[in-house]
Amino acid sequence: MSAVDLPTDGAAPRPAASLARRGLRLLWLSVRTHPRPFAVSILGAVVFGATAVGGTWVIGRVTDEVVVPAFRDGVAGTTVALGAAAIVGVAVLRSLGVFARRYYGMKAVRGMQRTWFQRVTDTYLRVPLSYFGAHPTGRLLAHADADAERATVVLQPLPLSLGVVVLIVLSVVSLALIDPLLMLVGLALFPALALLNHVYSRRIEEPAARAQARLGEVSGVAHESFDGALVVKTLGLEDREVARLRRSADRLRRARLDVARLRATFEPVFEGLPNLGTIALLSVGAWRISTGAISTGELVQAMALFNILAFPMRVVGFLLEELPRAVVAADRIEGVLAAPSRPQPPADAQVPLPAGPLAVEVEGLRFGYGATPVLDGLDLALAPGEVVALVGATGSGKSSLCHLLAGLHQPEAGTIRLGGVDLRRASPASVRSQVALVFQESFLFADSVRENLTLGEPVPDDEVWWALARARADGFVARLPAGLDQRIGERGVTLSGGQRQRLALARALLRRPGLLVLDDATSAVDPTVERRILDGLRGALRATTLIVAHRLSTIALADRVVFLERGRIAAAGTHDELVATVPAYAALARAYAQGATP
Amino acid sequence: MRRDDTAAPGAPPAAGAEAAGAAADLLASSPVGPALDAEAPPGPPPEDEPSDAGPLAGAGALEVLRRGLAATPELRRGVVLSVAMAVVTAAGKLAVPVLVQQILDRGVLGPEGFRPGFVHGAAAVTALVVLALYGLTRATYLRLVRTSEASLLALRVRAFDHVHRLSVAEHTEQRRGALVSRVTSDIETLAQFLEWGAISWIVNSVMIVATFAVMAAYEWRLALVALVAFLPLTVLVPALQRRQLAAQDRVRTAVGESLSEVSETVAGAPVIQAYGLEDRARRRLRSAIDRQYRAYLTAARYVAAMFPLGDLFGACALAGVVAVGATWGPGWGLGVGEVVAFVFLINLLLNPIAELSEVFDQTQIALAGWRKVLGVLATPPDVPEPAEGVDLPRGPLEVEVDRVSFAYRDGVPVLHDISVRLPAGRSIAIVGETGSGKTTFAKLLCRLADPTAGTVRVGGVDLRDADPAARRRAIRLVPQDGFLFDATLGDNVRIGLGAGGGAADDAQVRAAFEALGLGWWLDELPLGLDTPVGERGGRLSVGERQLVALARAQVGDPGLLVLDEATSAVDAETERALARALERLSEGRTMVTIAHRLATAESADLVLVFDGGRIVEQGTHAELVAAGGTYAALYRSWLGNTGAGALDGDGDGPGQADAGGPTAPISAR
């Protein structure tokens, strides 16, 4: 039946045959990855199939050997006990089979889900930074969660489907052994059920999907409407909004009724048809008993067989229905896994960066995303310990330069030398400890303050406090209810943007870097505090510091300003010099002064 | 498939397809429904209020049911229909074992031997009964769905309507997701329950009672044997059930934890790469994923064990009935057919037992959802409108705030005894830190909430007495994000006329843009007023959204304008357009601005400085700077910070953790 039924995916746009092939490939891949739980589960399913048919046989025998004789000329107590024991014994076996099938089936499913989950997250750890910009966070989460689940749930009925094959074969064989005529009645019934199931799944798919889409629409209306509550209220649009929701909810109701009509038509047939079959069986069977062709017990057994045969159609149907969805989810996951890794540092990249403030020499630096060059032959030199403000319009390449200096991107051409060492030959570990890049979006882990600074390294508390003090974050951390152990983001403890930025800064300072790159990392910090931080750093750390600046107050803190325009350093000097001599810089400075674009 | 292998020893209906089961099947195969095999997937709706989420006590459940039926009286009819359907279904199912007994005892094994006429006649009658019951089941089920869908629609619309009538104090960012759940997922749990769970309770209870009744009619002693065999289930199933629910709770927690670990990996990717934290992240992910896996397996153990229980005890009942029936049956005057009928009757009990144990779980979820919906409906709207409202005068409006205090429902006071007079036609800037009460103050001016004490008079009228339509016409709020609906640009301006304002034609809308000096901008758009703005105005830039919001205010011609100044970045050109539009919009109106920019406060006729829910200073910019108080300090730190220009936003304010920090005494950033 499966070969015939495979294209049950109905509405799926892809060619059914290739979808079926990909479905089988997915199933095979999953079974191969977790062979043991699958094997146990399938064994359980086979035991279930065999004992389900065996149970009907036991009932038939007990009818003939125990019940009928008991009413004719009596039966021995031991025979009765034996019959009862057989019924319970088969049930115990069957229950064990069911337990094994279900438990190990779920073990296989969850195991495969875990495998996908791990592979997806491993991918997230090896892709370049640009990958995260190109894919919305929500979708990345969904790959690890919903897609992994969807790609595996379909495995759950797989063992049962195989057990059902055993069940069907054994049932048909035992029906044939009882009476070929009864088997014929049965063989007429099952194709009808299979066909009905096929038609039902096909027809319900589209209305069910529509109902689902309508539900999404209702949710969309509610979201938008509540989001705009202020506008709705001040303009008195409540009635308009209610009418809008009513229309949407009514469409949902009608879609649900379409589904219900199909359900109401088909579902009772799956119940009724086997009943009609049983009735036909009784009519024929009664006659066969009277002619002595079969015994009473055999008729009872045949009727019991009919009833266990009604449901397998549904199970196989479910597997086939879910398969396309699982294939689509697996395809999405495969797409993630295929993402290229970020380039690995070459094997000879082992030169350690010197300790202390680092000189920065950048020559002919080129870098771009795709075909568009962002940095186009940029030259820049920073003396050790110098504090330089990097100024440029949005999109001029400031962040790219910062990332390149920290080794997060690889230049397309040109060289970056830190402390005289070519970044390509520098050991990655020393770059990480000597170069600290702090981002504008200060990311803090949902963990303690201490963990957010030490990042799992064993660091004495006084070191942590030193870094906090340099970032002017010691005051508010000391006042947190749990101090260094305070978990970030826990109920009631919210940090302001400026506080978060100061913690991120402290994280960088803890490592006492020789080059500090602040990519607009103090944008939410009060200017007076920002001044105190940088003044403090000049004395305590003396790191070479490059600050992306959007505020005149920040610019004022720097020794020197470099102005980035069209991928190159267009000018360098003091703020006043640049305002006087570079019109583009003067315009930008004016805009900052007016408070336009942070 | 929820009941896949409850089909037992010898038999009957494995895939009971009475409508109840039907719903279960659809549930299992629909993308929203639980996965196959009743292995409930984790996390139904998001748990926004932990206090609501716990399992409901029995009394609580009855109370929810009582109040729920009161809120949606249509559901009563549903109960009647369900019982009718249960009886019909039970009759259909019981007909077959009875026929088996009749044919065996009277048609084949009876004293008269084989009676073809009786056998075929009885079979034909039973077949007719089955067919007739099919039609009845179909009709009743459809009626039931129609009733329940209609009542769900009514409930959904009522809840939605009610949410909009609630005070804006309920509409916080944090609560918004919860409010959306009230009209979506919470009602969905109810929908699933009504179309499967509730029916299942009734149908299966009726089925069990009816089956035992038929058994007892045949032979009460055998029925008793069956009953005793099933009794242990009444203890075992609830015990397993409880463990299973607890295990599924742990699954939900574990899934949440592993998801937040992934989201840290994604959101923290720059930090992870810059600090070389890949190994640490991988370790943490692995352990979270493993914890999730183990939680799943624990839950799976209970689910897997629960399933064969009915089968096992059914077999015991069967063995008992056969043994007792064979030993004493002849003496009690039984027939072979009657004992065989018991075999089939016992199997009829297995499905209902299995389903009842599953429906338990769903019932709790549905009750929790229902309770939340009812909770929303029970929240009184805070801003009752007057029956006969007073009209507000045209032209610029004076505002008098007289000893106004305000506290949120949970009792947190926000404003303390504020009195101030805002002269008509002037521009007033409100400054203060986050949490100083300035936003709440602005909301009271629009009557988005009523003060807990004191009065707000606009144009001489107490806002509580003002006609709602007049109030909405005369007072306009322009929120910070200028919220736009997913419609055309023209539509978004047109709603500015308000519900009672009639439809503005394109000329009126265009005139509003012209009046603000924005005609050129409209001309630059290829589709002009027909430009679709996208979800939340996403197709326009932040600044352009604000332009539309200003035009929306302009088209209504209000006398009092309350503006929450935007903090977000806007390009220089739009910035200039906005400034010019604002200037024109404020002409001839009283304008109250929650100011985030120094320039706004500098140019205002009156500056109100809020701190801790009080107005601590008021005057012109020059006066306040000269006075050397809070505002002067604010101004000084501002001067060093002309760039960012936000007075609060997410600045360094003494929020919860930073109160009076050494770093930010004034904490303007």
How far apart lie the N and C ends of chain A? 66 Å
CATH superfamily of the largest domain in chain A: P-loop containing nucleotide triphosphate hydrolases
Tally of distinct domains of chain B: 3
Oligomer: heterodimer
Summarize this structure as a short list of keywords or feature phrases.
heterodimer, A: 598 residues, alpha/beta, ABC transporter transmembrane region fold, Rossmann fold, 6-stranded mixed beta sheet, 4-stranded antiparallel beta sheet, 22 helices, disordered N terminus, B: 669 residues, 3 domains, 21 helices, elongated, disordered C terminus
Write the layout of secondary structure elements.
The complex is a heterodimer of chains A (598) and B (669).
Chain A: H1 2-5, H2 16-33, H3 35-72, H4 77-126, H5 130-134, H6 137-153, H7 157-178, H8 180-227, H9 229-235, H10 238-290, H11 296-309, H12 312-337, E1 360-369, E2 372-382, E3 387-392, H13 398-405, E4 413-418, E5 421-422, H14 428-434, E6 435-438, H15 449-454, H16 461-470, H17 474-479, H18 497-510, E7 515-518, H19 527-540, E8 544-548, H20 552-555, E9 560-565, E10 568-573, H21 575-581, H22 583-594
Parallel strand pairs in A: 3-8, 3-9, 6-7, 7-8
Antiparallel strand pairs in A: 1-2, 1-4, 4-5, 9-10
Helix pairs in contact in A: 2-12, 3-4, 3-7, 3-11, 4-6, 6-12, 7-8, 7-11, 7-12, 8-10, 8-12, 10-11, 16-18, 21-22
Chain B: H1 19-29, H2 50-53, H3 58-71, H4 74-108, H5 116-165, H6 173-183, H7 185-218, H8 220-267, H9 269-274, H10 278-332, H11 336-378, E1 399-407, E2 413-422, E3 427-432, H12 438-445, E4 453-458, E5 461-462, H13 468-474, E6 475-478, H14 489-494, H15 506-515, H16 519-524, H17 542-556, E7 560-564, H18 572-586, E8 590-594, H19 598-603, E9 606-611, E10 614-619, H20 621-627, H21 630-639
Parallel strand pairs in B: 3-8, 3-9, 6-7, 7-8
Antiparallel strand pairs in B: 1-2, 1-4, 4-5, 9-10
